[in-house]
Design a protein that fits this description.
The structure holds 2 protein chains of 2 kinds. By secondary structure, chain A is an alpha/beta fold. Chain A is built from 11 helices and 16 strands. In chain A, the strands form 3 sheets. Chain A has an 8-stranded parallel barrel with strand order 1-2-3-4-5-6-7-15, surrounded by 7 helices. Chain B has a single domain, classed as Aldolase class I (TIM Barrel, Alpha-Beta Barrel). Chain B is built from 9 helices and 12 strands. Chain B has an 8-stranded parallel barrel, surrounded by 4 helices. In chain B, helix 5 links the parallel strand 5 and strand 6. The two termini of chain B are 37 Å apart. The chains are: A alpha/beta, B alpha/beta. At the A-B interface, helix 4, helix 5, strand 8, helix 7 and strand 11 of A face helix 3, helix 4, helix 5, helix 6 and strand 7 of B. Chain A: InterPro entries: Peptidase_U32, RNA/ubiquinone_mod_enzymes, UbiU.
């Protein structure tokens, strides 16, 4: 048996001050947030932090001995990238515990200006292998990398075994079926993507069409899905629509499901994952509270008695009510190793 | 000003070994500055293995072409890394790095490389960083619009950066990569037992909306546009911006005609004679250029596609 591993940090989303407090109150070790502009990949109206709420949030978290991470995880665009530089300056000034960056040019800026500032490599950097992660470690001394949701558990272990950088994986939330940072479907349909604008399938392009038979969900005019009466309708994220391929109409890319790694927690702890991330800065404080509380309990249970760990029905019940499309999956982690 | 050059991107689809060899024996005679080759999409595609690509590349290089080996864009496993190391260590041909890990290996070998469009270079600082690691040429992200590129190139010039720019100028746009295989999913097969059904779709599988609008193309783990991206109408502007080369992405039929059309258009840039080249007959989908114009990528040439803003 390997020596007992420390429990991974539970990293929870904060799209607002109430969500941040909900995460802290319900057992998050760390919260992550973004500023109110396109320097972060959840650039939605009504979401995120200004200077005042960020200071209050950081004060609250630090008072409870929790950490705060600032996500600056879009790619700095074009000739004037001062917005991204200012966001980094602001993060340093606010005293966040680390900044999460996607763009290696920004990593260089942050390291040069703030030698003591802890840097994390965002999932949007698409670093799926240890060579990519070790490059950022050597050049910018990044301390943690967040892996895209595409690797099997054995592949995650391979990465951990070949780097000094801490590894963070996604544990719960919407499932991105594409490699983060390598998906331009949204800008192909609307002109705006996560890399460039910090959005995917943005709400301002969504139009609901109430027909006599069916409800159509359009994104910039493109029909993403159609629902018959009584069929539950979902947000038209474009990879989660139903399309026609060679005469078959089906979820051609991805079904609307949620990632939930609860059943794998003992293995995740065992291979040495440093942190487990919950997706969802766009979610409500109530959602964040419920997910954080449930995962906190599960993680503690897995840490206490990994051999005897099993997923409690109450946890599953609590999470399945919140899951997108009501379905949950282990995602790429459980694809058999070959 | 340098004349705009033409390059041939790697074949993004899965073609049989014979088809690949035939394609490149023909391409050797086309007016191309650089030929990129290798498997850039899926590690399961092994009609040609790393050694075969290297041998083919060396053969083409001997016939006087500049040849670059394109690396896999999604590197997940130790065996992916082993294959990547073999490509980098071939000793002769340059690498197109489509992943930061590939850039690192090239740098460690002290070998210059091409920074592929998957490296997400959206500004001059990031470009300067890649250049310091050994990049001699870069391909901007396919979604980058004209004005953003112009601003980056202005800074490249201000900083005196010595790096060439190449644009993805023709073909279905490579938009997304996944750990899952959508071709296998279409056939209800698991990815690890995909039966290499991609071989049956040499231009990918068309994905339509429920009202029969052609939208995307399924190409194994890659999702591409259905529309055929064409920068043909913008070549004069592109040349004037200081772009060095434009890339033609191979398609199952008519690639030669497309190359010839671009060549003719480039020659016409330096001549007062007006030429009207129509490549639409050689694309099997609608021509789009929205990305270049700062619109949705799906916007057809000449068409606005912004429902809002």
């Amino acid at each position: 048996m390997p020596a007992t591993r420390p429990l991974p940090e539970l990293v929870c989303p904060a799209g607002s001050l109430p969500a941040l407090k909900a995460a802290v109150d319900n057992g998050a070790d760390t919260v992550y947030l973004g500023l109110k502009n396109d320097t972060n990949a959840r650039n939605f109206a009504g979401l995120n932090f200004d200077d005042r709420t960020a200071r209050e949030g950081i004060r609250y978290a630090h008072q409870h001995e929790r950490k705060v991470l600032l996500a600056i995880n879009t790619y700095a665009q074009g000739g004037d990238i001062s917005r991204w530089h200012r966001a980094i300056d602001e993060g340093a000034d606010l005293g966040v515990d680390a900044i999460i960056l996607a763009d290696i040019g920004l990593m260089e800026y942050a390291r040069r200006r703030y030698p003591e500032l802890r840097l994390h490599m965002s999932v949007q950097s698409s670093a799926t292998n240890y060579e990519a992660i070790n490059l950022a470690q050597e050049l910018f001394d990044i301390r943690r990398a967040v892996l895209p949701r595409v690797l099997t558990l054995d592949q995650v272990k391979q990465v951990i075994d070949h780097t000094r950088v801490e590894i963070e994986v996604f544990g719960f939330g919407s499932l991105c079926v594409m490699v983060e940072g390598r998906c331009l479907l949204s800008s192909y349909a609307t002109g705006e993507s996560p890399n460039s604008h910090g959005v995917c399938s943005p709400a301002k392009f969504v139009r609901w069409e109430h027909g006599s038979q069916a409800l159509g969900a359009r994104l910039n005019g493109i029909l993403i899905d159609e629902y018959q009466q009584g069929e539950p309708a979902g947000y038209p994220t474009l990879c989660k629509g139903r399309f026609e391929v060679e005469g078959d109409t089906y979820y051609a890319l991805e079904e609307p499901t949620s990632l939930n790694v609860m059943a794998m927690l003992p293995q995740i702890i065992d291979i040495g994952v440093a942190a487990i991330k919950v997706e969802g800065r766009q979610r409500s404080p109530a959602y964040v509270a419920q997910v954080t509380r449930t995962l906190r309990e599960a993680l503690d249970a897995a840490g206490r008695e990994p051999q005897r760990f099993s997923v409690k029905p109450g946890w599953t019940q609590a999470l399945s009510k919140l899951a997108e499309g009501q379905q949950q999956t282990l995602g790429a982690y459980n694809r058999p190793w070959k | 000003m340098n004349t705009l050059q033409l390059t041939l991107g790697p074949v993004l689809f899965y073609w049989s070994r014979d088809d690949i060899l035939r394609f490149y024996s023909e391409a050797a005679d086309w007016p191309l500055e650089t030929i990129y080759l290798g498997e850039a999409v899926c590690s399961r595609r092994q009609q040609l293995r790393g050694q075969d690509w290297i041998a083919l590349g060396k053969e083409l290089a001997e016939s006087g072409r500049h040849v670059v080996l394109s690396s896999l864009a999604l590197i997940e496993s130790e065996s992916d890394l082993r294959r990547l190391r073999k490509l980098v260590e071939n000793g002769e041909l340059q690498l197109e790095a489509n992943d930061l890990g590939a850039a690192r290996l090239a740098q460690q070998q002290g070998r210059p490389f091409v920074a592929g469009h998957h490296l997400n270079i959206y500004n001059a600082d990031t470009l300067a960083l890649l250049q310091s690691l050994g990049a001699r040429r870069w391909i901007p992200p396919v979604e980058m619009d004209r004005d953003t590129l112009a601003a980056v190139l202005q800074q490249v010039s201000d900083k005196g950066l010595n790096i060439e720019t190449e644009l993805f100028a023709w073909g279905r746009l490579p938009l997304a990569l996944s750990a899952r295989c959508f071709t296998a999913r279409h056939y209800n097969l698991s990815k690890d037992d995909c039966q290499f059904r991609c071989l049956e779709h040499p231009d990918g599988l068309r994905l339509n909306t429920r009202e029969q609008q052609a939208f995307l193309t399924i190409n194994g783990i890659q999702t591409m546009s259905d529309g055929c991206h064409s920068l043909l109408p913008h070549l004069a502007d592109i040349a004037a911006m200081g772009v060095r080369a434009v890339r033609i992405s191979p398609q199952w039929q008519h690639t030669e005609r497309v190359v010839a059309g671009y060549q003719q258009a480039i020659q016409a840039l330096n001549s007062p004679l007006h030429t009207d080249i129509d490549l639409a007959p050689y694309a099997d989908s609608r021509l789009v250029d929205g990305y270049w114009r700062g619109e949705a990528g799906i916007a057809a040439i000449g068409e606005a596609h912004h429902a809002h803003s």
